[in-house]
Amino acid sequence: MTDRRIFVKVPASTANLGPGFDTLGMALSLYFWIEMSGSTNGDTSINLYGDGLNGIARDKSNLIYKVAQLVFNEAGVSLPELSISMYSDIPLTRGLGSSASAIVGALVAANALIGGPLSDDNLFQLATKLEGHPDNVGASLFGGIVISAWDGTRAAKVRLEPHSQLEVLVAIPAFQLSTEKARHALPTQITMKDAVFNLGCSSLLVAALASGQLDLIPFAMRDRLHQPYRAALIPGMAEILDNATEHGALGAALSGAGPTLLALVDASSTRKEELEQFLIDTLSKEGIHAKTLWLQPCAKGPELEVLEGPVAAGYSFLERVKGEKGI
Ligand SMILES: Nc1ncnc2c1ncn2[C@@H]1O[C@H](COP(=O)(O)OP(=O)(O)O)[C@@H](O)[C@H]1O
Ligand SMILES: N[C@@H](CCOP(=O)(O)O)C(=O)O
């Protein structure tokens, strides 16, 4: 056991896609890497690499450590001391599913470390309970576009292959907004009219994505359940959601709980620069600096490697991640 190491790459995710609050998720080509092994010196060590994980706990209060222990408890195994290394390109608390990627990475790595006793569905159930909603964890665990429902006890899902013409532009504001805070902005009740509106848009969006009818996205990607209530937390958001299609987007949404804004774009669009500038300028008018990234839907879930035997001399987790990133 102590000579086994698990190396996992997990995609980020965007949740909701507008109308599918707590239901729709799509994996994105932005990643979190983790390596986990049993400790060889009897102590737990948590090594954070890069600038992306600043502020994350390095002791046993760390989310990854706690999730790993949950897997071991579930499987009836005792492995209290771990060696964990991680690196992330997924910005924290920006609405790109960093917590879901961390949870999924920890579940997959810990499960593989003890020989994989838990099924993917077991991991999905655990991840959903930990995250409190299935949308981000479903996308990070299965890749592609994942539609899920959770009744508080069990989650069920269907995965769709993303359309090959879909591209994703994200504008990531330079401020953090925790999911917890953005959920507190939501009302406890909504009208029947708004519920029906969202049901229609969300169902239509899923059908459009499943059948490749991208022309329906502008109509379907509208929401009255969460975005109107969160708009006050992200100046410029309402203007972007209202006008992105006029600048070449298929549709636009708040990514997860925000503050990141996301546009779906046809890969063959000739208006990508115009759209990117529109997002940057609209946020800038509000005094918000935002970083834009062009991403692809990620069709794969976690990519895992089981490494057996002693660590090779000169091995470096960070160099390995850099190698994967091509830097
Ligand atoms: N690799 C990680 N290790 C430990 N905790 C993490 C890791 N990644 C994210 N988290 C936790 O998740 C929080 C962010 O979750 P959340 O507010 O839901 O935003 P989002 O998931 O959209 O990035 C972080 O502040 C941190 O507490
Ligand atoms: N459905 C959730 C999604 C939260 O996503 P995150 O990436 O912001 O954690 C919500 O809208 O609250």
TrEMBL record:
- Which pathway, per its entry? Amino-acid biosynthesis; L-threonine biosynthesis; L-threonine from L-aspartate: step 4/5
Q: Which reaction does it catalyse?
A: L-homoserine + ATP = O-phospho-L-homoserine + ADP + H(+)
Q: What is this protein called?
A: Homoserine kinase
Q: Which InterPro entries match?
A: GHMP_kinase_C_dom, GHMP_kinase_C_sf, GHMP_kinase_N_dom, GHMP_knse_ATP-bd_CS, Homoserine_kinase, Ribosomal_Su5_D2-typ_SF, Ribsml_uS5_D2-typ_fold_subgr
- Gene name on record? thrB
Among its keywords, does the record have Cell division? no
A molecular function annotated in GO for this UniProt entry is: ATP binding
Traced from the root, the source organism's taxonomic lineage reads:
Bacteria, Bacillati, Bacillota, Bacilli, Bacillales
Keywords annotated in UniProt:
Amino-acid biosynthesis, ATP-binding, Cytoplasm, Kinase, Nucleotide-binding, Threonine biosynthesis, Transferase
